[in-house]
Amino acid sequence: xxxxxxxxxxxxxxxxxxxxxxxxxxxxxxxxxxxxxxxxxxxxxxxxxxxxxxxxxxxxxxxxxxxxxxxxxxxxxxxxxxxxxxxxxxxxxxxxxxxxx
Length: 101
Hints:
mainly alpha
């Protein structure tokens, strides 16, 4: 019985997560940045988005590494505001003007 209850809870969680993901994507209208071939664009938008839209945190990390030009350590995700500042500064530095929210 415990396993059946757990399975039901997991299905509910997945449904809620899927609904949250669709709501997050809908906020961007026609801007489907998560489909971009440019990892820098993906990094910019994802760092400003509280819902993880990219397939997983590993993909997000790889995009950040391309943008920042260095390894991104897991503990850096704990300092979200600092990470946002680093990304914004780098986008400004490299002239990534197409990255607009």
